[in-house]
Each structure stands twice: as C-alpha cells, then as structure tokens.
C-alpha cells in the first residue's frame, strides 16, 4: 500500500489527488440519464418496462409484473434462518431506538404583546427508497432508509429495487416485511428514480427519495432534485483512519480493506503519526488481500485509491483528515475521545479499537447512509429530518401589529412593494 510522508517534496500534489478522489465526469452519464427521465415522464409504465427489458434483461408482461406483493415479502422472511431473523430484528430495534432520539419537536412561543410564533414539524406523505438489488444483498440499506421514515411518521413508503433476470433479492424482501413496507417495485437505476419523482400509472410520485446507488442513480437524483427532495448525492464508499503508535496494524489493515472490497472506486486512507505502524499496516494489507473473496476488487481499490500518510503530529493528522472529510472515520489512538472536539468533518466517527466501521454498517444504530467525497463538510448522515419538514407559525395580536406594523410597511416601501405596505397600513388605520 502506498505510503507518503507530509515532509515529502511531492506531498502537496499527492494530497490533492486524495482530495479529488470523488470527482467524476458526469457529462456523458447526464445525457443518458436525462433521456431516461424524459422517457419516464412522457411514457410512464411503457418506458419503465422498456428500460427493464434493456437493462435487467427480462420481459415485463403487465403492470402487475412490476409489483412486489407483501405476501412475497412475508414468504421471504419466513424462509430465512432463525439466526438471520434475530440479527435483522436486533438491527431494527437498535436503529429505531437511535433515530427516535432525533425526532424534532414542534414548538410555540408567546411574546408579551400577544404575538404567537412557533414551528410545526410534520412528516412528508410519501417517501421513495432506492435499494440496490440483484446479485448484491443489502437488507441493511433497506433498514437504514425505511426506519427513519417510519420514525418520522411517513404514511406511505415506496421501495424500488432492481431485479436482473427477474430475480428478487430475498433478503431485501425479508427486510421489507420487517419494516412493513406497503409498496415495492421491481425497477432499478435511473428509471426507478424518475418513476418515483414523477410517478407512473403504477408507481406513485413521492415527496423525497433516499438511498444509495451507482453513478446513474446518483445523477438521476441530482437531476430530479426540486421536483422531489433527496437525501444526498453519494459517491463510492470510503474510510479514513487516524492512528498513533499504539494502534494494532492488523486491525488497521482489515478496516482499510472493509471499504476497499466494496468496489474499485472505494477509497481507504489512513493518517498516522508512526512510520512503524504505517509500514506494518501496509504489510498486513498485502497479507489480508490474499485471503479476501473480493481480492481483485479490493486490490485495485487499494492500489489506485488507497494511501497511508505519515504525519509529523496528531494535530497535523487531524487537520489533513478534516480536509479529506471522509464518509467513515475511525480514531485508533490512546485518547480517542480527547481528539473528538478537534474533528470537524466526517460522516460517522468510530472511536476506539473495538469500534470497526462494519459495526456502524449493521448494528450500532446510527445511519450508514453517509456523505462521501468530502461532502461531510456540509451534508449530514441520513436521519429522521430527511423525511420531515417544518412550517412556521405566526399570529399577531392587535397590540403586536400596532407596535411593529409601521416598521414592516417602511421596509416594504423600501423594496417598492406598495401592496405589501398597504396590507399592513390598512389594518393600522382601521384599528385607530
């Protein structure tokens, strides 16, 4: 694994490459996705069926073929073994408990002059969840996206998942059953995003779309934003690790590889204050690579997008990691909690050697749908508020408008909005 030192002459250029890890040219993809969206808008189910036949390689005979029944979900759940059922339920309970603590509250404030101001928080009516399917099994993604919507109080949850060759992922269906999903469809890719954003004869239009996906899915979410809300535009998975001389290289190596095995575009970056730990971790990475079922994918990721940086101090290491703003950040030092105030930008922060990133993926409770590619500088993890919106509450008494009305009218005059000003002044005159 590549090791670079902050004192190296070429460090600045090497670090710039790390910072640009998520940049992709989406112009070509945007053109393709725009055509897909336009076809869905113009032709509805007809276009959805054509896209499924083209991309997922099976022929849709009727609109009903697009649907996944709750009976199928229940059957899938009943067919999984008891240990897996138990694990899914443990995950469900922990994720639900965590997200219940996020619920925002409506509030009302009363001023002395009779003014009443407040905020009313309500869930969206319909949420659309995109869940990767096919050969990969992501029941955890279903739980992580559905449970915040359930906690928020969303009335209707719509799931879209791809089914190559009309093969439904049984684990995703089992998770749908646990979450009591009412509507699910065998549609994937940009087509699914467009269908949920604009609606078709069969697939309902939703208010917000969340969930991970490839570059076509991410581009589609970007293009439909405004027609619906979205959670974020996520790129390839990534991990950052801060470590000192006390960290165990074996732990560090396998944690770096836990992200590298996702896909070739994943990034695994460690910043350490110990040259010895850097060297030993690199050796452990090579040893572990040979044992992985996805060795080819992980090796390409590590070789092309992985790096170990040796910093001169922990303060320098943290400063660099804040610039990287990784999706997942592990802190493997003797004083992990003491460093927490200095960490500003990360999707999720894992403290201590007994908190590997996969714990967050499945069972800890916080959401694993996280901002990537340095967007943790301004995006948050998927949470309950992604499925809610706020309305302002305003009520002025006679005393309040008498006290504040003329100031309001003056500001309206300044902007040249005479009707605005008069709507206030007519009340002031009538009240005398």
UniProtKB/TrEMBL annotation:
Concerning CDD domains, the annotation shows: Histidinol_dh (cd06572)
Q: Which residues take part in binding Zn(2+)? A: 259, 262, 361, 420
Q: Per the UniProt entry, what species is this protein from, by scientific name? A: Arcobacter arenosus
Q: What does this protein do?
A: Catalyzes the sequential NAD-dependent oxidations of L-histidinol to L-histidinaldehyde and then to L-histidine.
Entry keywords, A to Z? Amino-acid biosynthesis, Histidine biosynthesis, Metal-binding, NAD, Oxidoreductase, Zinc
Single annotated GO MF: histidinol dehydrogenase activity
Gene Ontology biological process terms in this record = L-histidine biosynthetic process
Identification of the protein by name: Histidinol dehydrogenase
Q: Which Pfam families match?
A: Histidinol_dh
Q: Which cofactor(s) does the record list? A: Zn(2+)
Q: What reactions does this protein catalyze?
A: L-histidinol + 2 NAD(+) + H2O = L-histidine + 2 NADH + 3 H(+)
Q: Cellular component per GO?
A: cytosol
| Keyword Metal-binding included in the entry's annotation | yes
């Amino acid at each position: 694994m590549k090791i670079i030192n902050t004192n190296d002459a070429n460090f600045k250029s090497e670090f710039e490459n790390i910072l640009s890890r998520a940049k992709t040219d989406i112009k070509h993809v945007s053109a393709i996705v725009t055509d897909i969206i336009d076809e869905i808008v113009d032709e509805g189910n007809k276009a959805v069926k054509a896209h499924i036949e083209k991309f997922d390689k099976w022929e849709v005979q009727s609109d009903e073929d697009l649907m996944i029944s709750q009976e199928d979900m229940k059957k899938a759940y009943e067919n999984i073994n008891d240990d897996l059922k138990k694990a899914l339920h443990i995950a469900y309970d922990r994720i639900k408990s965590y997200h219940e603590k996020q619920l925002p509250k409506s509030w009302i404030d009363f001023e002395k002059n009779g003014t009443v101001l407040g905020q009313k928080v309500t869930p969206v009516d319909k949420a659309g969840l995109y869940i990767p399917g096919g050969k990969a099994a992501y029941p955890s993604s279903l739980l992580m996206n559905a449970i915040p919507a359930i906690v928020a109080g969303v009335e209707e949850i719509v799931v879209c998942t791809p089914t190559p060759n009309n093969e439904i992922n049984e684990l995703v269906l089992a998770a749908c059953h646990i979450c009591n999903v009412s509507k699910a469809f065998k549609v994937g890719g940009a087509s699914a995003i467009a269908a949920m954003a604009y609606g078709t004869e069969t697939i309902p239009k939703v208010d917000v779309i969340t969930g991970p996906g490839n570059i076509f899915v991410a581009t589609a979410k970007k293009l439909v934003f405004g027609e619906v809300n979205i959670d974020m535009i996520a790129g390839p998975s990534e991990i950052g690790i801060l470590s000192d001389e006390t960290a165990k290289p074996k732990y560090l190596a396998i944690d770096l590889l836990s992200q590298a095995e996702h896909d070739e575009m994943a990034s695994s970056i460690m910043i350490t204050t110990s040259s010895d730990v850097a060297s030993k971790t690199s050796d452990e990475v090579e040893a572990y690579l040979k044992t992985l079922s996805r060795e080819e994918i992980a090796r390409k990721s590590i070789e092309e997008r992985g790096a170990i940086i040796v910093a001169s101090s922990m303060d320098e290491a943290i400063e660099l990691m804040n610039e990287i703003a990784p999706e997942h950040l592990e802190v493997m030092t003797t004083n992990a909690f003491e460093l927490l105030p200095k960490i500003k930008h990360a999707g999720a922060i894992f403290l201590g050697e007994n908190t590997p990133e996969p714990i967050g993926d499945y069972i800890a409770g916080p959401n694993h749908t996280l901002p990537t590619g340095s967007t943790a500088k301004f995006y948050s993890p998927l949470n309950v508020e992604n499925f809610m919106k706020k309305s302002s509450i305003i009520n002025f008494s006679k005393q309040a408008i008498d006290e504040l009305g003329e100031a309001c009218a003056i500001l309206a005059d300044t902007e040249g909005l005479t009707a605005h000003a008069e709507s206030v002044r007519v009340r002031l005159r009538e009240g005398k």
